[in-house]
Design brief:
Blueprint lengths: L12 H9 L14 E4 L8 E5 L4 H9 L4 E4 L16 H11 L3 E4 L2 H4 L5 H9 L2 E8 L8 E12 L1 H12 L5 E2 L7 E10 L4 H6 L4 E5 L14 E4 L2 H5 L2 H12 L4 E4 L14
Parallel strand pairs: 2-3, 2-11, 3-4, 8-9, 9-10
Antiparallel strand pairs: 1-4, 5-6, 6-8, 7-10
Helix pairs in contact: 2-3
Length: about 270
């Protein structure tokens, strides 16, 4: 009877926002970030949500086609202040289109990155890591808030097998990595998205490998044979965030229509020589 009472007409954008921020409070976002409501009214009715990693014009088009009245993304569409709303950029065009179709937008970015139940945990679980804990816990809430994740495989594996597992899990045609260390991989640190600042934490905790994204050329020299550094790609290491958000909503509101977007938003493409 309780489930039946969760009526679409009774749901608001704020209800769904609060559902996610229970595990990823907005105060956990980084100072440069813009998580939370991007477009629309928190008190507006929410009947169907489209969930994505990035908001593009094509994502808004999909939301319109599927009669979604709001979009939930990981990456904020609006990172910096907009001085005008014209057809000049895809950001402005997407905002205008959303407003025209009365579609609200919310983003759960670094607050979800910094949650123990967030982005990096999901990636770690997909890889099969156990005994998980935060790589760099926050001083305010070291059990639930912090950057990255570290865990262990039940059995150690060869470096080539680990790279194969990562590539298969994230669906990547290729991986950038540092020089092989000739050691087996058991303890793994990782951070979905841009996690280079936490490489020293991985080294300090004596991880055998560190998986993240957006690694620059000179960063690959840093490990000096002490750790296998792997760049899995920004989209690839954060892609499971969509399922995470959907799961959080459906767990609390089983009858709410939350749907993962079909539109592909990875801005990086690969040419693989045959």
């Amino acid at each position: 009877m309780l489930i039946l009472s969760l009526n679409f007409e009774n749901m608001t954008v704020k209800d769904i926002l609060n559902c996610i921020t229970e595990v990823a409070p907005l105060q956990w976002q980084e100072s440069y970030d813009n998580a939370g409501l991007q477009v629309g009214d928190l008190n507006a009715d929410a009947r169907k949500a489209l969930i994505c990693l990035d908001i593009t014009e094509e994502i808004v088009d999909e939301a319109v086609a599927k009669n979604c009245d709001f979009i939930i993304s990981h990456h904020p569409l609006i990172f910096r202040g907009l001085k005008h709303l014209t057809p000049e950029t895809y950001i402005e065009r997407a905002v205008v289109k959303a407003i025209k179709h009365d579609i609200a937008m919310i983003s759960m970015h670094t607050n979800l990155d910094n949650s123990y139940l967030g982005v990096s945990r999901v990636l770690a679980e997909r890889l099969g890591l156990k005994n998980l804990h935060l790589l760099q816990p926050s001083a305010a809430d070291p059990e639930q808030c912090g950057a990255g994740m570290i865990g262990e495989f039940e059995n150690p594996m060869e470096e080539a097998d680990f790279l194969e597992l990562v590539a298969k899990t994230i669906g990547s045609p290729c991986l950038r990595h540092s020089a092989l260390t000739s050691r087996k991989i058991q303890k793994v640190a990782l951070c979905g998205g841009s996690g280079v600042p936490f490489m020293q934490d991985a080294l300090h905790q004596k991880a055998d490998a560190y998986l993240t994204a957006d690694i620059k050329y000179h960063d690959f020299f840093v490990p000096e044979g002490h750790i296998l550094l792997v760049d899995g790609g920004h989209f690839e290491t954060e892609q499971f965030t969509k399922e995470l958000i959907c799961e959080l909503i459906r767990k609390k509101f089983p009858t709410f229509a939350a749907e993962i977007a079909e539109t592909q938003t990875n801005s990086v493409h690969y040419f693989v020589k045959k």
